[in-house]
């Protein structure tokens, strides 16, 4: 249930600082504080971070988690232990006696 939000939030954590640095480094004029502009920049940084994190999860995290499951053998189902099953022949022999 929480696997996808956890992966997205971690990817957003990893990618948000480079996005902010690139966005701030690309300014071509002097920046003066205005509340509406700060809100606009916050929303644009948030959306860019979310989109980049989603792409990061799709292209890197998902294939490597699948590969890890295959290599570690987590995809195989283990047989149940402690549960005894009778074969059909043994059952028929008991019922005939």
Automatic annotation (TrEMBL):
Chain positions covered by the region annotation Disordered: 74-97
Keyword Methyltransferase carried by entry: no
Coiled-coil residues: none
Composition bias, Basic and acidic residues: 85-97
Spans traversing the lipid bilayer: 12-32, 38-60
Name of the molecule in the record: Acyltransferase 3 domain-containing protein
Keyword Transmembrane included in the entry's annotation: yes
Keywords, ordered alphabetically: Membrane, Transmembrane, Transmembrane helix
